[in-house]
Amino acid sequence: MQNLQMVDLKRQYHKIKSEIDTAVLNVIESTAFIAGPDVNYFATELATYLGVKHVIPCGNGTDALQIALMALGLKPGDEVITPSFTYIATVEVVALLRLTPVFVDVDADTFTMNIDSVKNAITSNTKAIIPVHIYGQCVNMEPLLALAAEHNIPVIEDNAQAIGGTYTFSDGRTAKTGSMGRIGCTSFFPSKNLGGYGDGGAIFTNDSELAVTLKMIANHGQKIRYYHELVGCNSRLDTIQAAILRIKLRHLDEYCDARRKAADYYDNAFKNNSKLTIPYRASYSTHVFHQYTLQLHGLDRDAISQKLADRKIPSMIYYPVPCHKQDMLKDYAVADTNLPVTTTLQSCVLSLPIHTELTEEELEYITSNLLDIINNNN
Ligand SMILES: *Cc1c(COP(=O)(O)O)cnc(C)c1O
Hints:
This protein is α/β, with parallel strands linked by helices. The protein has two domains: 9-249, 3-Layer(aba) Sandwich (Aspartate Aminotransferase, domain 2), CATH 3.40.640.10; 253-376, Aspartate Aminotransferase, domain 1. It contains 13 helices and 14 strands. The protein has helices at 9-15, 17-30, 37-50, 61-71, 89-96, 115-121, 141-150, 208-218, 239-250, 252-270, 301-310, 340-348, 360-375; strands at residues 54-58, 79-83, 100-104, 126-129, 156-158, 166-168, 174-176, 183-187, 201-205, 222-224, 227-228, 276-277, 292-296, 349-352. The protein has a four-stranded mixed β-sheet. A three-stranded parallel β-sheet has the order 3-2-4, sandwiched between helices. Strand 2 (79-83), helix 5 (89-96) and strand 3 form a beta-alpha-beta unit. The protein is globular. The structure holds pyridoxal-5'-phosphate. Pyridoxal-5'-phosphate is lined by residues 60-62, 86-87, 89-90, 132, 158, 160-161, 187, 189, 199, 201.
């Protein structure tokens, strides 16, 4: 088995190469590198896909989160509730804006924020809640939205890992992940489920007034060129990326299906092994498997990862250090926050290769080797 990767972008590209190449060359020929027509077309097409009124493209997923917090007009010291079990970007922007991160624990099955912990963490200073749809599993939004509404706290969805997912409310109504909070944020980093060929991100909202503010902040605080009403930043989606993303958006559902199919294969191979817990699939949402993440029990994770590597099978720990333990946040003195589930998960999770191009032969190779390593202690 050669060249297994966590994400195989090359094979995916080759399937749509002629379309992509034409689109990229058209942008170059037009020289409309910044704010070319593809950027607006993409924003409109993504808004339709998500069922939201406004999509504001920006430079990357981290900027999207930062701009969202800026648009809510939060002041230094305002509290923002987030999980610690997430990629650092979710929390970094909170610290960057001198807001106060308040960490909550996650559920051991879904890896997503525990709603009771959020309830207990709310104070009169809580000014935003950031649920993270980690690994492609949507947070249980219905109770979270109800809780947030009760306290009048805006919800910003970090949808960087779950674009394409669908949530079903108890009355049967469905919504795309990222479309349910006051603001939704995503990333088009190449390895994400809807990835460009470079950096990119977007912000979603149904609030038209807020959309104007978000757009202004992403563009130096101006509505009219050279008249700057707000302190903003410079965060744009390149036209070339937008042209690529327009094509890839048409394949997003099929890409999510391909990831789920690979996850099904893994699940079947691992489901009866007492040393492994397969990812949970919540009944209230589809899972889009940005990552396929196992929990290992009674096993030496580093040794297993090394043995997999010896057989040319990559694996990754997302993420080895939870956010609240990062040196970056030492001024907040949050390292001792009691997050038992986060601590346990961080010591036992292991992610396997998952992407849109995995073949049955590759899945068989990965699963049989991992089982051989675990069961026979090879
Ligand atoms: C990737 C990611 C981000 C940041 O996106 P960038 O485009 O890399 O800035 C934020 N949050 C989560 C959960 C992510 O996975």
